[in-house]
Amino acid sequence: MSRLYRLLLLFLLLGSAGLGYRSVDAILKDPALSPLVDRSKDEIVALTDKMVAAEATPERLNDLLSRRLAEQPRNWVALQALADLYAERGLTLPATYQTAWDEDSSIVAQTGACLSCAWDIGTCSLSTALLCKAPILLTPVEDLRGITKAGVDYASGTEIDRLDLGLSVVGLSATVLIAASGGTSGTVKAGTALVRLAKGMRLLTPRLTARMTAGLTDGVRWADIPAVRSLSDLPALLRADALAPVTSTVADLGRTQDAVGTAQTLHLLPLIDDAADARAVARVSEALGPRTVSRVEVLGKSRLFRATVRLSDTAIELTAGIVGLVAGLGAALAHMIQTVIFRRLRRAAPQRR
User: Fold this and answer.
1) What whole-number distance in Å separates Cα of residue 137 and Cα of residue 326?
2) pTM score of the predicted model
3) Which of 42, 89, 39 is nearest to 61 (CA)?
4) Residue-wise burial string across 21-40, b where 16 or more C-beta atoms lie within 10 A, e elsewhere
5) DSSP-assigned beta bridge partners for residue 220
6) Of 122, 175, 187, nearest in space to 147 by CA
7) Burial 202-237 (b: 16+ CB within 10 A, else e)
8) CA distances (Å), 132 to each of 47, 165, 285, in order?
9) How far is CA 28 from CA 23, 65, 166, 315, in A?
10) How far apart are CA 273 and CA 244, in angstroms?
11) d(CA 9, CA 20)
12) Can you say how many angstroms the Cα of residue 318 is from the centroid of all Cα atoms in its chain?
């Protein structure tokens, strides 16, 4: 029986070691292999629906709505998403919501807010930005303005805003390339316009601002800008490899914009610190569509992003191998200790007699 037990332990150890070696070997052969893999759109929808069903209690929703209503200016993207969630959950919307809407949607209030936004983008709310500022910012006119402003600043000795100028160069280059690429550069163009709008509204996180500024600083041939004579010369200024994180980010923002709209994307921008976050937001938006904002309001960034990935089969296999190996070693050690103790007891038994 003891021999059979030892053979069983040996088999468990060998099996665990084999699983662990196989997984480690796969990771070493494929550096891009990640222990986490993306969930499908259906999986994201199912999991987030389950999470919201548990979290979106009447008390929680009332608390979230009260906090949003207390903000100035009020964020009607978030408020509308919460109102939709009330309807989705079959709950009655508090009367304070309608009162606030009547206040903010009056002609006088809208006119004053629009004039303020047109004069100073920093005063724009998500709604007024779309009505009063985006029609200009989302066109090549703003890219041209950015390059012109940089030229004036350079001539006057004023420090150039490299983020603004870099976005202008990339945005205009994407505009030039849209025709050549059959439209595939459109998401990059939309993303750069969105980033510029978010920058003016102070919606970009410090980390995203720093990463994009660094990427644009390395990714644009700044010394060659004075030699540009036409828009067709702009793409030659770009260093594709250095710009990859920036173009990836703005392209994912363009995907998000296509999935949920401009106002919702601006609302989601404070969640984004890097290219990985931008990709996660794009995947969530494409899966959830209009319900993205309500899920963010209830679940927050961390929990929502975790819902987009799961452990890969390799990671599960590796974990199982490690657990089995540890269990096997523990059992072998326990058996060894038990054997030593029994031997000593048997040797001591005759002496006691």
Assistant:
1) 59
2) 0.71
3) 89
4) eebeeebeeeeeeeeeeebe
5) 238
6) 175
7) ebbbeebbebbbebbeebbebeebeeeeeeeebbeb
8) 38, 22, 25
9) 9, 49, 38, 13
10) 16
11) 16
12) 27
User: Phi, psi at residue 159, to the nearest 5°?
Assistant: -65, 135
The size of the chain, in residues, is 353
Kindly list the averaged pLDDT for each block of 10 residues, start to end, along the chain of length 353: 59 62 59 67 94 94 96 88 95 94 70 63 63 57 72 75 82 65 62 82 90 88 75 77 88 91 90 94 95 95 89 56 61 67 66 50
Torsion of CA 123, 126, 128, 134, to 10 degrees: 100
Contacts within 8 Å (CB) and 24+ apart, 206-212: 207/273, 207/274, 208/249, 208/269, 208/272, 208/273, 208/274, 208/277, 209/163, 211/245, 211/246, 211/249, 211/273, 211/274, 211/275, 212/163, 212/166, 212/246, 212/249
* Token couple for 59: 């008390």
DSSP state of 225: G
The one-letter amino acid code at 50 reads K
Q: Are 138 and 190 spatial neighbours (Cβ–Cβ below 8 Å)? A: yes
